[in-house]
Design goal:
One of its GO terms (cellular component) is outer membrane-bounded periplasmic space. It is a single chain. This protein is an alpha/beta fold. It folds into two domains: 22-156 and 313-352, Rossmann fold; 157-309, Rossmann fold (3-Layer(aba) Sandwich), CATH 3.40.50.2300. It is 43% helix and 14% strand. The strands form three sheets. Strands 2-1-3-4-5-11 form a six-stranded parallel β-sheet, with helices on both faces. Strands 7-6-8-9 form a four-stranded parallel β-sheet, sandwiched between helices. Helix 7 links the parallel strand 6 (181-186) and strand 7.
Length: 379
């Protein structure tokens, strides 16, 4: 899709923010022995006296590529500093994650990093961690209704929604449109605060066009409550899209699938193919988030229009510096102390900058940035 000037400016600004605002930390070399690690220092001059300390990392699922990458990046960087790492995945099972964290506490974790399946279910076990003196860092999903969390490492989630909305606005030239476009929404899990923030950012851009009729949602489902999909389920998105196509688009075409996640884009793709839509003919604009390998391949092939690139290597770097700070009694870098109110406190946070990628800029952003190789994308 041919990008307009303002879209190019948006990508450039966000790319600059990523490069400057969330650059990787130099974590130094791994300790060779326990004695070496006790006296080692990082290239930044801070102490890396981490041997004997255990960091427990609770991730939500391995069903999404991004969480696998998050976990492996985190483990690698923490072990390079000499920490022992206990990395576990809950496979989107709430009770399994509760049990995993209970076991991490019992096993003597010195710090917990948690990307929650459902943060509301973790309040009691987080209280146990606080009572045991174990600091908690929330990772890319805010831990709600607890005063046990120390810091939060994430991307600018409202900014993700804004970037998706701006991409739709610019691609369809909504400000100057003389025709209307049909749109349906596929938003994130209702138990994930990030999903709400993304929705808010998206609607700040698109609501005026819904109000004036430039965008038409034939299902009428535009609220977060009506468009959220539990556990970020790809199957849920596919079913919703199938229902919309059958119920509202038998005689009209769907122009835009505004989805909040690459998995949702896959689900919409399957539904559209089943309904007879064809890439290059009547294929809708489909958004996404995470720039997964499959999503990037789909962007190249034309079956997904764009995604939000979130370099998890950079996010892992920021989280690792938070872990190091809480275990060494120093202060990590923070760039937001206002947005992330979890109902008990405003959690000090570091927000990395999201970047919109499509067929026009994926090579510059993703390939040249070393996230994927041309060979991976060609497989």
């Amino acid at each position: 899709m041919k990008k307009r000037v303002l879209s190019l400016m948006l990508t450039a600004v966000m790319a600059m923010g990523l490069a400057v605002g969330c650059g990787p930390a130099d974590t130094g070399a791994p300790a060779d022995t326990a004695a070496d690690a006790a006296t080692e220092t990082t290239d930044e001059g801070g102490s890396a006296a981490s041997t004997g300390k255990k960091v427990a990392v609770a991730m939500p699922t391995q069903s999404s590529e991004r969480w696998i990458n998050d976990g492996s990046n985190m483990k690698e960087k923490l072990e390079a500093l000499g920490y022992e790492v206990d990395l576990q995945y809950a496979e989107d099972d709430v009770q399994a994650q509760v049990s995993q964290i209970e076991n991490m506490i019992a096993a003597g974790a010195d710090c917990l990093v948690i990307a929650a399946v459902d943060s509301s279910a973790l309040v009691n076990v987080e209280a146990q961690a606080k009572e045991a003196g174990i600091p908690i860092i929330a990772y890319d999903r805010l831990l709600m209704d607890t005063d046990a969390v120390s810091y939060y490492a994430t991307f600018d989630n409202k900014g993700v929604g804004t970037a998706i909305g701006k991409y739709i606005e610019e691609s369809k030239d909504l400000a100057n449109a003389t025709d209307s476009y049909t749109i349906e929404f596929f938003m994130g899990s209702p138990d994930d605060n990030n999903a709400v923030m993304l929705y808010n950012g998206l609607m700040e851009v698109l609501q005026p066009y819904l109000d004036n009729g430039t965008l038409v949602c034939k299902s009428g489902r535009t609220s977060f409550e009506d468009t959220c999909i539990l556990r970020w389920s790809q199957e849920g998105a596919q079913k919703n899209c199938e229902d919309y196509l059958t119920g509202f688009y038998a005689n009209d075409k769907l122009d835009i699938c505004a989805t909040a996640f690459d998995g949702f884009a896959y689900g919409c793709k399957a539904a559209l193919e089943g309904a007879g839509y064809k890439v290059g003919e009547d294929w809708p604009l489909i958004t996404g988030q995470d720039a997964e390998l499959m999503a990037t391949k789909n962007i190249i092939a034309g079956s997904q229009t764009m995604s939000i690139y979130k370099d998890t290597r950079l996010l892992a770097d920021k989280c690792v510096t938070m872990v190091q700070a809480v275990l060494e009694g120093t202060e990590p870098e923070i760039n937001d102390k206002e947005q992330y109110d979890n109902g008990k406190l405003v959690v000090p946070s570091y927000l990395c900058t999201p970047v919109a990628v499509d067929k026009d800029n994926y090579k510059e952003i993703i390939v040249d940035g070393g996230y994927y190789t041309e060979e991976q994308l060609a497989d």
